[in-house]
Design a protein that fits this description.
This protein is of the alpha+beta class. The chain is built from two helices and four strands. A four-stranded mixed β-sheet has the order 1-2-4-3, with helices on one face.
């Protein structure tokens, strides 16, 4: 890491969703983000192959910011309101 590369902020919450598929994954993801404060970061581990498409699409549809997506690890910032 070079001196100009920012150090990533630690996540405020972590969730290992294992192999949960799309429906269960997004329902639980919504529930977990609702318990967090606006702007907080969730680090999600989602091993289901569909998560590569599902997590970014869900973030776009809901307004939450997908900060990083290197399958199976995703970092999501809760929307401000």
């Amino acid at each position: 890491m070079s001196a100009s590369t920012p150090v990533p902020r630690p996540a405020d919450a972590h969730w290992d969703a294992g192999d949960l598929g799309c429906g269960e994954l997004v329902l639980e993801l919504r529930r977990r983000l609702e318990t967090m404060q606006p702007g907080q970061l969730l680090q999600l581990i989602a091993r289901d192959p569909g998560a590569r498409a599902d997590v970014p699409a869900w973030c776009r549809m809901t307004g939450h910011a997908l900060i990083a997506d290197e399958h199976p690890v995703y970092r999501i910032r809760r929307k401000e309101s």
